[in-house]
Amino acid sequence: MKALIFAAIILMFGACAIAADPEQRLKEAIDEYHKGDIKKAHELFEVYLLDYPADITALEYLGIIELKLGRPDKARFHFLRVLERRPDSVQALVGMGHVECAQNKGFACQDYYEKAAKLSPTREITDLVIQAQKANTQRIAQEKAEKRLRLLDRITRAFHVIWEEEARLRAIEAERIRKAEAGAPKVNVYVPVNVWTGR
User: If both were cysteines, with which of 31, 55, 96, 127 could 112 make a disulfide (CB 3.0 to 4.6 Å apart)?
Assistant: First the structure.
C-alpha cells in the first residue's frame, strides 16, 4: 500500500513538473508534429492552449494541423486569433491563404499570400502568389466562357422559338390562302404584256 501511495505521489509531482514547464510541453507538441504524429500533436496543442490560450506558436501549429486534418473552418479560427495578436505573422497569413483556397475563395487567398510575400518574399511564398494569380485568371476566363455559353444558349433558344412561331404563322397563312382560293370563283385575269419585253 505504501508503494502505491509513493507511486501516486511521484506521478503527481512529475505531472506538476511537466505542467510547470510550458516550454517543455510546447516543444513536445512541436516534436510530435515534426515526427508526423498529427493527432497526438493536435491533442498536445489543444491541452497546452487550455493553459496558454494566447500562445502564438501553438495557435499557428494548431491552425496548420487543422488544415491537414481537412478542417479549414477550425484552422481559420486559430489563424485569425494569431493575426489579432500579431498581424505580421507570415505563418498565419500563409495559413489563411490556404484556408481561403480550400474554400474556393481565390481572391481572398491571393490577398493573404501577397501580404505574406510583402513581409517575407521567399521563393515558396512568391510561388503561392503566382499560383493563386494563375488560378484566379483561369477562374475568370472560365466564368467568362460559361457566361458566353449561357448567353449563346439563351439566344439559340430564342431563335428556335421565333422560327417555330414563324413556321406556325406561315402555315396558318398558307391555310387561309388555300381556303380563300378554294372558295373563290375562277376569274380570268387580264395581265397586260409589255410589247417590248414580252413579259
Answer: 96
- Which alpha helices (H) appear in 21-122, and where do they start and end? 22-35, 38-51, 56-68, 72-85, 90-102, 106-119
- State pLDDT tens for residues 5-14: 544 444 454 4
Q: Tell me how far the alpha carbon of residue 107 is from its chain's centroid.
A: 9
Q: Under CATH, which number does the domain 54-169 receive?
A: 1.25.40.10
Q: What is the residue extent of each domain of the chain?
A: 54-169
* CB under 8 A, 24+ apart: contacts of 114-120: 116/90, 119/88, 119/90, 119/93, 120/90
Q: State how far the Cα of 88 lies from the Cα of 19, in Å rounded to an integer.
A: 30
CB-based contacts of 107, cutoff 8 Å, min separation 6:
136
Contact 59, 65 (CB under 8 A): no
pLDDT tens digits, residue range 164-196? 888 888 888 888 888 877 776 665 655 556 656
Q: Which residues have a Cβ under 8 Å from the Cβ of 29 and sit 6 or more positions away?
A: 41, 44, 45, 48, 58, 61
What does the longest C-alpha to C-alpha distance in the chain come to? 142
